[in-house]
Design goal:
The protein is an alpha+beta fold. Helix content is about 15%, strand content about 30%.
Length: about 180
């Protein structure tokens, strides 16, 4: 009886967290509930597909330093499939960030910035020191804009940078006006 209750409870928790789940042709489609993030989704795909070699067809979750990241939405169907398919793998490019306009000599007292990601500190972005003049930054080739934040005794939203960019481009950050 105890094992039956454990199994019933486990299934209840799984269905409440994952919503519906169906498996077809080495792919698993499911939806998530409130509070479910990409860490759980990646673990779920690995377990259901029996491999760590899988991809999300819409790219909702991806690997970054520290684990699986992304922003899944409640009620949306997500599909992960075993293997790799190049059409879902975006090529990365490397651009170089120049913060010369915000160096201490050009824009006293100088401004450190955060470039990229959805929020200051997002692992998808990078910190740019006020003295950086050629900082390498890897981003997906289809990136068309980058958000920025600057430091002035606290972090504040800066100007949005607009691309597109190609491999090797130099992105010169505009001067910060902290008035």
């Amino acid at each position: 009886m105890r094992n039956f209750l454990f199994l019933a409870f486990s299934l209840l928790v799984k269905s409440a967290t994952a919503g519906t789940c169906k498996s077809v042709d080495n792919c698993v489609t499911f939806s998530v509930g409130s509070g479910t993030g990409c860490a759980w989704m990646c673990e779920h795909c690995a377990n259901e597909l029996g491999t760590n070699n899988y991809y999300f067809t819409d790219g909702v979750c991806s690997y970054a330093p520290g684990g699986c990241v992304g922003n899944p939405q409640v009620g949306v169907d997500y599909t992960c499939c075993a293997g790799t398919i190049n059409k879902f793998v975006k090529d990365d490019i490397v651009v170089f960030i120049d913060n010369t306009p915000n160096s201490p000599s050009n824009n006293p007292p100088g401004f450190n910035q955060w470039v990229g990601g959805e929020y200051k500190g997002d692992p998808a972005g990078t910190k740019v020191d006020k003295t950086d003049t050629h900082l390498a930054y890897k981003l997906p080739e289809d990136t068309t804009s980058l958000l920025t934040w600057y430091y002035n005794w606290g972090w504040y939203s800066g100007q949005e940078l607009n691309g597109p960019w190609k491999n090797g481009d130099i992105i010169t950050l505009p001067p910060v006006s902290a008035n």
